[in-house]
Amino acid sequence: MTPTERLYYSDPFLFRFTGRVLAHGTWNGAASVVLDRSAFYPEAGGQMADRGVLGGRAIRDVQVDDAGVVHHVLELPEGTGLPEVGTELSGELDRVRRRVHMALHTGQHMLSRALVDVANAHTVSSRLGETLCTIDVDLDVLDERRVAEAEDLVNSIIDDDIVIRAFFPTPEELAALPLRRAPKVTDNIRVIQMGDFDVSPCGGTHCTRSAQVGLVRVLGVERYKGKGRVLFSAGRRARSELWQEASTLRALGKGFSCGPLDVPASVDKLRRDLTEVREALGAARAKLAESTAAELAAQQAQSPGKPVVAVLDGATPEYLRSVAARLTSRPEAVVLLAGRNPEGLSVLITRGSGSSFGCGAFLKRAAEAAGGRGGGRPEHAEGRLPPTTDWPAIVASLLG
What is the β-pairing status of strands 198-201 and 216-224? Predict the structure, then answer.
């Protein structure tokens, strides 16, 4: 079958076109329409496929086979078939999606070039995803300062509004071009030339002037599978992300009663205040745990040889541990504590160094009796029981 004429090669801003149905095909088990010509970009080279409407039906996917035939997979209502062979169809692209892809792909070329010039980092692969775009380079570590310089260089080229040319050079012209990377194909090699800045073989859709990209924004630098990875955005997507972040920053500023640029200082002050409050709360809890432990120890002194059994309202597991640590300073001590909270009864069982009481085994029996859960070692066990559990009664019944 004759390869599909791809109209976006000559005009990436062609959003409406007509094409004649040459054949019906299949792609991954789905029926497809093959046209004599198409402006829809098929998924390839790390760039996602276009979307839109063809013959009044929504496009679900666009793919290209090894013979260069573009397959248009349509959303077909139940009971309907593909347009008949020979039918002339009108196609309309999702303009916003195409422009986003053009900006992202052009931005990727520019950032890949800048990474070579600034950091000597050569692109080995790139991906333009629905929500995230990445460039993987041949360095295992990327200097974030260098990447920031590359970002600045790209945006200066955008500001210069240089001409971007897409063309199919002759073999002689191709041999004379300073390509950033070698072509992946041997025939019909298409080249994207960005003034004197970058020359690369590529079949994707690109802007025709650098200012159409709008901006390129680096989102982060990371290590991925032993290589350096740059996460980036461009064009409308980058603007949308910036607006969302600015809106969040303004909302935070309003909450802190300060300007957006003063939010970091307000957050730092909040952190300092929180640290001080936590330290003060920790000291208060320590004093309270000491007081609670002293009270329980006094009660235990009146009944030597018996375990300490208590229910402490509102006590967290951390607080129970703090109290128990003070009580088990006596080698023979056995401590069975519970903290009652709306979500349940936190239970802690522990012993002194001279006791042989089986904490884990006892808690297992208590959990089975009360319908809770928990476990641990012979010297220490923790668990949770239903909030209505009568802990002293459970302990008394199990101890006999």
Answer: unpaired
Give Cα separations from 77 to 49, 57, 62 (angstroms). Answer: 22, 9, 18
Q: How far apart are the first and last CA of the chain?
A: 89
- The answer to whether the beta carbons of residues 72 and 39 sit under 8 Å apart is no
In eight-state DSSP terms, residue 262 is G
DSSP three-state, residue 69: coil
Pairing of strands 227-234, 16-27: unpaired
222: tokens are: 């990371």
CB 123 within 8 A of CB 137: yes
Spatial CA neighbour of 9 closest among 263, 226, 203, 260: 203
Torsion of CA 253, 254, 257, 259, to 10 degrees: 40
What is the residue whose two structure tokens read 């980036």? 232
pLDDT tens-digit readout, 311-366: 999 999 999 999 999 999 889 999 999 999 998 999 999 999 999 999 999 999 99
Q: Higher-confidence residue: 41 or 81? A: 41
Q: How many residues does the chain have?
A: 400
Residue type, 67: A
Residue 41: φ, ψ to 5°:
-85, 125
Q: Report the alpha-carbon distance of residue 349 to residue 377 in Å, rounded.
A: 10
What is the C-alpha to C-alpha distance for residues 202 and 185, in angstroms, rounded to an integer? 10
Indicate if the alpha-carbon torsion angle 186, 192, 195, 198 is positive or negative: negative
Task: Locate the DSSP E strands across 138-264.
Answer: 164-167, 191-194, 198-201, 216-224, 227-234
How confident is the model over 225-277, as pLDDT tens digits? 889 999 999 999 999 999 999 999 999 999 999 999 999 999 999 999 999 99
Q: What is the pLDDT of residues 60-75, one digit of tens each?
A: 999 999 999 999 999 9
